[in-house]
């Protein structure tokens, strides 16, 4: 029994040391090194494991030595570091995008459903059912290839306006809209195989806003898929510059392949122009739908100051590794 307890103690110490190292390295998430950026993703998990590890060590340690104090201080520091990133996606902090319950006659409301369907997923009906149930004004679908595009043609009758940029590399994108789309441009901001849309959307009351649909590549490497190895991911900074110069109401939405943790300015290169609808509301973890223990927010909506939030929710599974996200906004 004593031997098992000793082995268990050693394992706890090793886990503690790794947690401290990983948390400290995660501070350098914007250093341009993909392995450091990947440590930015599992902050929720590291935060929880650090609490469990601290609790176990305090039970196991009978006689405190210098390294026990050192490891405890390191774990508490790790807890604080991760908390600094996580706290903005909790109700402890005030929201950045104000909520609204009653819409004034001068204001216009509209909704967006966005979903990364995962190209290899062949279950189309769950997404179609969600669209029928939620009845969004805009539907943004990512990882769309020719097969998925054909299956989604059923939406054409309800959504007379649409734009497609299809490919077989998991970065195809389709935008469906009940609202008129003006001047839709397909941009390739940082990779010739990764499209994004810039659309001007007209609301019934004649108000307009710019809608940026984007799906940049992740920091991890996937064989035979687009990759930005050796260069900085600049797509969102380019969009941020456009919004900063344009001055019109704007929305940025999509699978950003980044957890963000509310640091929108760092990601987009803007300064208090774009606001994360999650701040002060919750994590709404959209990835990984297939793994309860490894989830974090990857699908995001940023808006300029003119918008108010009516509703934000994560929708049920559709067979993808992402949960769809639904947002209702007021302009």
From TrEMBL:
Pfam families from the UniProt entry: Exo_endo_phos (PF03372)
Highest taxon above the source species: Bacteria
Gene3D superfamilies according to UniProt: Endonuclease/exonuclease/phosphatase
Spans traversing the lipid bilayer: 7-28, 44-61, 68-89
Domain Endonuclease/exonuclease/phosphatase intervals: 116-322
Keywords: Endonuclease, Exonuclease, Hydrolase, Membrane, Nuclease, Transmembrane, Transmembrane helix
Keyword Hydrolase: yes
Alphabetized GO MF terms: endonuclease activity; exonuclease activity
Protein name: Uncharacterized conserved protein YafD, endonuclease/exonuclease/phosphatase (EEP) superfamily
Taxonomic source organism: Salegentibacter echinorum
């Amino acid at each position: 029994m004593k031997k098992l307890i000793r082995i268990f103690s050693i394992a706890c110490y090793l886990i503690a040391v790794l947690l401290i190292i990983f948390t400290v390295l995660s501070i350098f998430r914007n250093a341009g090194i993909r392995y450091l950026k990947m440590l930015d993703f599992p902050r929720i998990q590291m935060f929880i494991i650090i609490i469990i590890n601290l609790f176990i060590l305090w039970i196991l340690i009978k006689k405190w030595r210098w390294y026990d104090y050192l490891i405890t201080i390191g774990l508490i520091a790790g807890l604080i570091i991760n908390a600094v990133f996580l706290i903005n996606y909790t109700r402890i902090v005030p929201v950045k995008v104000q909520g609204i319950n009653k819409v004034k006659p001068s204001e216009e409301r509209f909704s967006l459903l966005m979903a990364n369907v995962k190209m290899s997923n062949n279950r189309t009906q769950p997404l179609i059912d969600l669209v029928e149930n939620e009845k969004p004004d805009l539907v943004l679908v990512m990882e769309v290839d020719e097969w998925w595009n054909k299956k989604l043609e059923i939406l054409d009758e309800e959504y007379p306006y649409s734009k497609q940029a299809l490919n077989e590399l998991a970065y195809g994108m389709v935008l469906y809209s009940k609202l008129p789309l003006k001047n839709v441009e397909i941009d390739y901001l940082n990779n010739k195989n990764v499209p994004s849309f810039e659309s001007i959307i007209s609301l019934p009351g004649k108000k307009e806003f710019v809608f940026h649909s984007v799906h940049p590549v992740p920091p991890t490497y996937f064989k035979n898929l687009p990759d930005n190895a050796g260069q900085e991911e600049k797509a969102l900074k380019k969009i941020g510059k456009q919004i900063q110069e344009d001055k019109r109401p704007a929305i940025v939405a999509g699978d950003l392949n980044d957890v963000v943790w509310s640091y929108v300015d760092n990601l987009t290169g803007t300064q208090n122009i774009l606001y994360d609808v999650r701040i002060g509301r919750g994590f709404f973890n959209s990835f990984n739908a297939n793994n309860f223990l490894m989830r974090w927010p990857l699908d995001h909506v940023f808006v300029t100051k003119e918008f108010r939030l009516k509703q934000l929710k994560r929708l049920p599974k559709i067979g993808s590794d992402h949960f769809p996200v639904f947002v209702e906004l007021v302009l």
